[in-house]
Design brief:
Layout: H1 7-20, H2 22-25, E1 27-38, E2 44-49, E3 54-59, H3 61-64, E4 76-86, E5 91-101, H4 106-121, E6 138-143, H5 149-160, E7 165-170, H6 178-192, E8 197-202, H7 216-224, E9 229-233, H8 241-245, E10 248-249, H9 253-260, H10 264-297, H11 300-303, H12 307-347, H13 350-354, E11 360-363, E12 381-386, E13 389-394
Parallel strand pairs: 3-5, 6-7, 6-8, 8-9, 9-10
Antiparallel strand pairs: 1-2, 1-4, 2-3, 4-5, 11-12, 12-13
Helix pairs in contact: 5-9, 6-7
Length: 396
């Protein structure tokens, strides 16, 4: 009778067979990433596919933490690793130990990814750029203490403006931990507030050698710095993330020193020119004011200050005379009109009529004027108003 195997036995047996296969132990697989998932544990799960097939893949945190770029769906990559069986699911998959973009370098892709990310966040926006001080007293330089860069900066600044004090913060400019040192140096200068401007400097090199200045931690420190930062990394053709975030980019460290340190002789010439222009302007203004004073002293107002007062006094007398004449004319006119109206009123006055023998009869009971015999009755009490008094009477 044939032996009966468990599912685990079969999966374990297949796993052992595949694990002993030399071809599947260390291979490179080209394909396109799909179904990518970055698990909260730090492990990456994805599918690698081509035009006609696919394979499940996993890349544990111990390996993916060394990636310079972030995998994405649709990205074509070359994955290095081995094939094995996941016994629980009975599924073979590719255990990735390395990954690189297919056709584009990993560092170049990481550079572009970080550049796009920071640009969307506004870290490159010109409105956040701080102006450099015109006459800095203290300049902080973040660079290697052993390279020729610091010597070049000191020589240029000493020649252009020897009054500047240079404070060097030595850091590693390449290799493991260099980015953290550079970031710490920027943060420390901001904590101490001991410099007016910061220069990040490094000589030329390959993309790998300049990579410390492409790290996100350095970009964040530059952006949050309250002190203006000048990036002078590599040669004129070299660009790093630090160049885009910094307040000013210099093509070389020597050029950064020239940007930060003003030329003392040029400043002297500019100052002399300003003194000359100021003296010339003062002299010109003095001539103008003298001419104005001369015109004032020769004017009538200055020689005869009371002439205007006298003129105005006479003008007031004329106005007063005209006003009195106008009032007299108006008074005569209104007086004549008053007399005419008074005569008309007197002619229409009831008293004037009564003086000719007329009287006004009222009914004492209701106070109405009697105009007709129908307004009275026998025994009615009447009041007769005459010009010089009243007469009470009764109708009999």
């Amino acid at each position: 009778m044939s032996r009966v195997y468990t599912v685990s036995d079969i999966n374990r047996y297949l796993r052992n067979i595949i694990s002993r296969d030399i071809l599947l132990s260390g291979l490179m697989v080209r394909g396109e990433i799909s179904n990518y998932k970055n698990h909260y544990s730090g492990h990456m799960y994805f599918t690698l596919k081509d035009e006609s097939s696919l394979i499940k893949c996993v890349m544990f945190r111990t390996h993916n933490c060394q990636l310079k770029f972030m995998p994405e769906n649709g990205m074509r990559v070359i994955v290095g690793g081995y094939i094995s069986v996941f016994e629980r699911d009975g599924q073979y998959q590719l255990y990735a130990e390395s990954m690189q973009p297919d056709g584009v370098g990993a560092l170049h892709m990481a550079f572009e990814q970080l550049k796009q990310k920071l640009e969307k966040e506004g870290l490159f926006d010109r409105r956040f750029k701080k102006p450099l001080p015109r006459l800095p007293r203290y300049v902080g330089v973040v660079t290697s203490s052993t390279g020729s860069v610091i010597k070049d900066i000191i020589n240029v600044m000493g020649r252009r403006y020897p009054n500047i004090n240079i404070k060097v913060y030595p850091v590693a400019v390449q290799g493991e931990g260099a980015a953290k040192q550079i970031s710490k140096a920027i943060d420390r200068f901001n904590e101490l507030k001991c410099v007016d401007v910061i220069i990040l400097a490094r000589g030329g090199g390959s993309l790998e050698e300049l990579w410390a200045f492409n790290e996100e931690v350095v970009a964040r420190s530059i952006f949050k710095s309250h002190i203006p930062v000048v990036s002078a990394v590599g040669h004129e053709t070299d660009y790093t993330i630090a160049d885009f975030v910094a307040d000013e980019r210099a093509p070389t460290p020597s050029a950064a020193a020239e940007i930060v340190a003003p030329d003392k002789e040029s400043l002297k010439n500019e100052l002399n020119n300003l003194v000359y222009r100021l003296a010339k302007s003062l002299n010109h203004n003095l001539i103008i004011q003298r001419n104005r004073l001369s015109r004032v002293t020769e004017s009538t107002a200055f020689k005869q200050p009371y002439d205007r007062v006298y003129q105005e006094r006479m003008r007031i007398d004329i106005y007063q005379k005209n006003l009195i004449r106008a009032l007299q004319v108006n008074f005569s006119s209104y007086k004549s009109r008053f007399e005419v109206l008074a005569g008309k009123l007197d002619a229409l006055s009831p008293l004037k009529i009564m003086s000719r023998g007329y009287s006004v009869v009222k009914n004492k009971e209701n106070g109405k004027i009697v105009k007709s015999i129908n307004d009275v009755y026998k025994g009615a009490d009447l009041e007769i108003n005459l010009m010089d008094g009243t007469v009470d009477c009764s109708v009999i």
